Each structure stands twice: as C-alpha cells, then as structure tokens.
C-alpha cells in the first residue's frame, strides 16, 4: 500500500464508511471516463430485442424505488438520462445506456412492487431475470439495497438466481444520505456478514448517495476496473 492509498483509506475510515480503496489515479481516470458522452441506446421489452453483446455491460438491479435510475444518472452526471421517479415501477423495460462507446450501463425494472397487475409484473420481472441469466458480456450486476432497510427477504430470490447462474454481483447501498454515518457503517458490516457465504457475491458492500454524491467516484472506479476499460 502506498502512502497515498493509506491516506485515502484513513480519510475514508474517518469521514465516510466507503469500504472500497482506490488510488487517486484510478479515481481520476474513472471521473474522466464517466464525464464522456453517455446516451440512451434503447429499451428492450422482450428478450429477443436485446442489443448485440458486443460491449462490456454492468447492470443495476433491485427493488422498485431503490434508486437504480437515479444511480445511473449520478454516475454519468446527467440528471435526466435514466427516468427516475417517486412512482414505483417507473422502469419497465431493460434500458441500455452507452458510455463513450466503451461500455453499457443497463437499467433493469425493479422487483417487489405490488401495485401493477400480476401479469404485468411477471412480464417485466421475467425479462430482468432472463437478461441477468443469459448475458455473456455482463461483467457484473450491482444489486441495489436501500441503506435504511438493508437486505430483506424479497432480495434473496435475485441473489439465489445470481449465485446459481454464477453471475458476479456486488451489493450497493443507496440513499446513504438518509441515515447517520454510524448507522451506515453498521448496515455495511451487517450486509457483508449476511452475504459472506454467497458464492457469486463480491465481499465488499459499497455505499452511495445519488443525491449527495457519496460513493459515486468509487463506484465509477469499480465499474471501470470491472469492465477493463480506460478513458
Ligand atoms: N435522498 C435520496 N433519494 C434518492 C436517492 N436515490 C434515489 N432517490 C429517490 O428515490 C426515488 C426512486 O428513485 P428511482 O431512481 O426512480 O428508483 P428505481 O430503482 O429506478 O425505481 P423503479 O424504476 O421503479 O424500479 C426517487 O424519488 C429518487 O429521487 C438518494 O441517493 N438519496
Ligand atoms: Mg427506474
């Protein structure tokens, strides 16, 4: 560990409970990459409509309203690229966003949402599941969990499916601005303990706030590294 990364780790430990430890160079490269143009490519309503698997992809999954679309917007620094809303079930297609023609960010429909008709919910949830299982260029799924609530029973099904399909996934806590730093630290530790035995889960749980920007530089670095792209 260099002095610089040591300092980064100490600053994080003191200020914010972000557990990821990246060098200043990696964080800067990720900032530059995510400042490049990001565009909406397409929304797929059916599995047959998915675009060719010709660029590395990462995807954002999680309960409805957890903040998937908001997190994509925070990563690319655009408020309205992905449609975010207070109304649960906003995202009903698998939406593809291209960053700098180098990688894709994929916004999935949320699960655990009771208000749509059962048939409709099943339709867009099956689509999300099929995407997660069968995408050869999917480098990692980020499973978003509300920092105020931690893992719930409804999150077990996607984690089981990802473990069985051996799709690498990482838990990202959202809305970290809504709780106190010591509460955030406790939920990170608890969540890390809960996923320890899950074979496809990344052991580090990240914490983010799309609203305040907490953890966003680290998640950019994580995605850049996972997709093996450079700015
Ligand atoms: N305070 C705070 N609010 C947030 C944050 N991220 C998202 N929200 C709010 O949470 C609500 C839902 O956010 P979305 O990004 O639309 O959630 P989603 O997971 O895409 O929802 P679906 O598309 O319905 O699955 C919106 O009102 C956001 O403004 C955050 O980091 N902090
Ligand atoms: Mg959404």
TrEMBL record:
SUPFAM superfamilies: P-loop containing nucleoside triphosphate hydrolases. It comes from the Bacteria. Pfam families: MMR_HSR1. GO terms for molecular function: GTP binding; metal ion binding. Its cofactor is Mg(2+). PROSITE patterns: G_ENGB. This is Probable GTP-binding protein EngB. It comes from Asticcacaulis excentricus (strain ATCC 15261 / DSM 4724 / KCTC 12464 / NCIMB 9791 / VKM B-1370 / CB 48).
